[in-house]
Amino acid sequence: MFFLPPWQAIYQTDGERDQTFSEAQQVYANLKRWYLRWGYDVVDVPCCSVPERVAFVLHAVTQAAEQGGAD
């Protein structure tokens, strides 16, 4: 499971996202802890450009597939 942590440099609130950055960090930590508790493999996607994020995810998926970890 890919997780994208809150990224302060680009974080904004709006009509739908009314959490503060601190609240977003707490939600992120709680969700990550919950998924780990239930046995999910959690992979943090780094805070970088969109093409770099895509490359990271594709690389991780390719590695998992090669190792037989893709279910």
What can you see in these coordinates?
It is a single chain. The longest helix is centred in the middle third of the chain and has 17 residues. The protein has one domain. The model has no long low-confidence stretch (mean pLDDT 90). It is flat and about 40 Å long. It is mainly alpha-helical and 71 residues long. The N and C termini lie close together (11 Å). The chain contains two helices and two strands. It has a two-stranded parallel sheet.
Task: Report the structural category.
Answer: mainly alpha
| Count of DSSP-assigned helices | 2
Low-confidence stretches: none
Task: Give the oligomeric state.
Answer: single chain
Q: List the strand order in the largest sheet.
A: 1-2
Q: Characterize the biggest β-sheet.
A: 2 strands, parallel
- The helix/strand order is EHEH
The counted number of beta strands is: 2
How much helicity do the residues have? 40-55%
In percent terms, what proportion of residues is strand?
5-15%
- Overall geometry comes to flat
Distance linking N and C termini: 11 Å
- What's the rounded overall pLDDT mean? 90
Radius of gyration using CA atoms only: 14 Å
Number of separate structural domains: 1
List the helices and strands and how they pair.
Layout: E1 2-3, H1 21-37, E2 43-44, H2 50-66
Parallel strand pairs: 1-2
